[in-house]
Design goal:
- This protein is α/β, with parallel strands linked by helices.
- The protein has a domain of about 180 residues.
- It has twelve helices and 15 strands.
- The chain has an eleven-stranded mixed sheet, with helices on both faces.
- The longest helix is centred in the middle third of the chain and has 33 residues.
- About 45% of the residues are buried.
Length: about 375
């Protein structure tokens, strides 16, 4: 998998792998807006990591342009992100899997991050692209000061997240346009003297070949980071990139959440997942001398964002006080919840019949699992 990060990263020589210790706990020394791309692969019980070279050779960029029929100048656009975008695009086409972007929460070292991403891929059948920010500090063990430090790092990372979204949008649009040009040429070649049949074939080929969905999963304080990335004037996070956005166990204030949630422009749905018994969000409300406001991910009142589909998993089988109930052990004992997450991570609508396992509670403006 690929990790996009604004953490400090220790360089490796070409072809020389490292392990996850190459990721630092501090922002990139060149500034928190600087992004690096690292390829991470499992090796037995451990992981190996490779930094990618910053700039491709012109001939390498030209080969990618020609392979995917891209409208780019290979002398101008030849950073590693071009290679990664083409590689991910090829993976989605050859495997038929959708792409999910994962933004993790606080108190996450890189092993936590990549192993969660691996579980997202395994549990929900997608290809996972990770955005990682410096979040090694907070949580139950480290205490309130470290938690506050993670919140500060999250705010400092908002420009980096927006830069990532802008690149994601650019390459998504460029690759999609290239594929459409290729399919149009194929249709015209099949029916050179019949524009009507060529257009019908082109529409059919687009339907069959351009169906990859792109979704965003923000967990815990990753939602706080997204909230700041959505501030007025920030373009990347406000762009129409994703089919679904999933705000899971959001460590952000419930009060006023509608102002930033409604700024999310999506093709399909914005889902907000809530567990009132979430142990981590209960802890995050504690601050010496003051009380932090109720968290969006653990509060079922004031659910007023007009574009949000709220899903309350409180009391559902296996959830208990879990904070990371979107992967792993909880889903192994709750088939209905697994169905919901697999559906939304793959860009579809979990509440729509037939086959939906969600029931709507109109008095609270939320959905719950049927029978739980």
């Amino acid at each position: 998998m690929y990790v996009i990060t604004n953490r400090a990263v220790r360089e490796t020589k070409p072809g020389e792998p490292s392990d996850l210790t190459m990721f630092g706990e501090q922002p990139n020394p060149a500034g928190p807006n600087e992004l690096r791309i690292v390829r991470v692969e499992r090796s037995g019980d451990d992981w190996v990591a490779h930094t990618l070279k910053d700039v491709l050779l012109v001939r390498e960029a030209r080969a990618l342009r020609d392979q995917w029929n891209l409208d780019i100048d290979p002398r101008a656009i030849r950073h590693a992100s071009l290679q990664v975008a083409c590689d991910l695009y090829e993976q989605t086409r050859t495997t038929g899997r959708n792409l999910a972007v994962y933004v993790h929460g606080y108190n996450n070292d890189m092993r936590d991050v990549v192993e969660t991403a691996e579980r997202i891929e395994r549990d929900h059948g997608v290809i996972c692209l990770v955005f990682s920010w410096p979040a090694n500090g907070g949580g139950v063990i480290s205490g309130t000061l470290a938690y506050r430090r993670d919140k500060k790092d999250a705010r400092a990372s908002m420009d980096a997240l927006n830069r990532f979204f802008e690149k994601l949008q650019f390459f998504h649009e460029t690759l999609t346009a290239g594929m459409r040009k290729t399919l149009r040429a194929q249709a015209v070649e099949r029916h050179p003297s019949n524009p009507g049949r060529a257009q019908a074939l082109y529409a059919k080929l687009c339907s069959e070949g351009c169906g990859t969905k792109l979704s965003l999963l923000c967990h815990s304080m990753g939602n706080y980071l997204l909230k700041y990335a959505l501030q007025p004037g920030m373009s990347g996070a406000r762009s129409l990139i994703f089919d679904n956005v999933c705000l899971i166990a959001a460590d952000a204030n419930n009060a006023g959440h509608d102002t930033w949630v409604q700024a999310l422009d999506v093709r399909n749905r914005v889902y907000v997942f809530i567990n009132e018994d979430d142990f981590a969000l209960k802890w995050s409300r504690r601050k010496p001398g003051e009380e932090q406001l109720p968290r969006l991910g653990s509060h079922i009142k004031n659910l007023v964002a007009v574009n949000a589909f709220y899903v309350d998993v409180t009391g559902a089988v296996g959830v208990g006080d879990a904070h990371g109930y979107f992967v792993g052990a909880v889903l192994s004992v709750n088939v209905k919840l697994k169905q919901v997450f697999t559906t939304v991570v793959n860009g579809a609508s979990a509440e729509s019949p037939p086959g939906s396992v969600l029931a709507f509670a109109a008095d609270l403006n939320l959905y719950r699992l049927v029978g739980d």
